[in-house]
Amino acid sequence: MRIPSGPVPAARRPAGGLRRLLAPAALLVICLLGVPVPAAAADRLPDGVVWTATVNDRNVEGTSSDDPVRLDPGRPADVVVRFENLSDETVEIPFVRLEGEVLQLPLYSYMTQVALTLPPGATDQRSFSIPLVGLGAQASGLIPSRISLLDDPSPDGEAVEISGIDLVVDVRGNATSVYGVFGAAIGALTLMLLAGGLLRLATGRLPVNRWRRALLFAAPGLGLGFLMTFTLSALRVATPEGSLWTSLVLGGGALGFLAGYLSPTPGGADDRADEDGGGAEGDAGPDDVPPPWPGDPDGAPDDDEDTVARLIAADR
């Protein structure tokens, strides 16, 4: 007969690894859903009003990655905006703006007052030069840009766009521009994350749970997508427009996630085990072993009847 000296502890049920993955997984989803997708601005010009623009004698509507408008920070940009009003309304254009941005982050913006009033049936144009002050320190490479007609500022001080035309600009800026330094920082961070993941893979220190491994490699995958975006722009291979960079970033994150998910399990451990070494739910761990039996240094029960009687009396 075996009678323990106290109640046997209940089997410990370790917290499931899936619950601990909810926070990082939710963070990853929020980051992916939070990637801004450019939206087309509404055209507030009346029907029948048409306009076009040239920058440095280039029609902005015919630009592309292979044939961009070149902006040299050492020379002003010559802009000509032509209007034709075929409507029955008078149109007023207070300002014209030339701006560029990547990943929805503004890189440069130059606004000029034109104070144009266009009666019905009239045609007119405005010519002006834009001093590209500070452009070389802000950007370099192919930059998605836009030339816009602006209304008077709203009460909160923001300019209201009336109409705009997208164009591709080749900025001949400095390698140490804000854009270049930001791209280099993203590259350095990505390489650090990737090197850390590969080192853990080589030394067998990756998480046992394959979902954790997937999240570990998804971060450098996203970084590689951003790095490719900056690299293609800086090398003047492709313009980092919304459709391109979102595909690169999300595609890189997905490939990194898949690579981590399919990476080998360290030591051939069961994939259901948690990273901390706990077993599956319901399995007893080292802390679940009952305490040793009194009277026996090895923890084995004593079959002596007198010892059993004393134990029963002590429990009472």
Tell me what the structure shows.
With 316 residues, the chain is of the alpha+beta class. The chain folds into 2 domains: 17-45 and 175-316, no CATH class; 49-171, Immunoglobulin-like. Helices cover 33% and strands 24% of the residues. The protein has 6 helices and 9 strands, in the order αβββββββαββαααα. The protein has helices spanning 17-33, 135-138, 178-202, 210-234, 242-262, 305-315; strands at residues 49-55, 58-59, 69-71, 77-85, 91-102, 105-118, 123-130, 141-150, 161-171. The strands form 2 sheets. A 5-stranded mixed β-sheet has the order 3-9-8-5-6. It has a 4-stranded antiparallel β-sheet with strand order 2-1-4-7, with no helix packed on it. Strand 1 (49-55) and strand 2 (58-59) form a beta hairpin. Helix 4 (210-234) packs antiparallel against helix 5. The longest helix is centred in the middle third of the chain and has 25 residues, at 178-202. It is elongated. It starts with 16 loop residues before the first helix and ends with a helix.
How do the helices and strands line up, and which of them pair or pack?
Blueprint: H1 17-33, E1 49-55, E2 58-59, E3 69-71, E4 77-85, E5 91-102, E6 105-118, E7 123-130, H2 135-138, E8 141-150, E9 161-171, H3 178-202, H4 210-234, H5 242-262, H6 305-315
Helix pairs in contact: 3-4, 4-5
Number of helices: 6
Helix and strand pattern: HEEEEEEEHEEHHHH
Q: DSSP strand (E) fraction?
A: 15-25%
- Taken together, the total number of domains comes to 2
Q: What composes the largest sheet?
A: 5 strands, mixed
Binned, the helix content reads 25-40%
Classify the secondary structure makeup into a structural class: alpha+beta
Q: Given the C-alpha coordinates, what overall shape results?
A: elongated
Uncertain segments: 8-26, 36-40, 270-275, 277-288
Average pLDDT value?
80
The value of Rg in angstroms is: 34 Å
Reading side by side through the largest sheet, how are the strands ordered? Answer: 3-9-8-5-6
Terminal-residue CA separation: 17 Å
Could you give the count of β-strands? 9
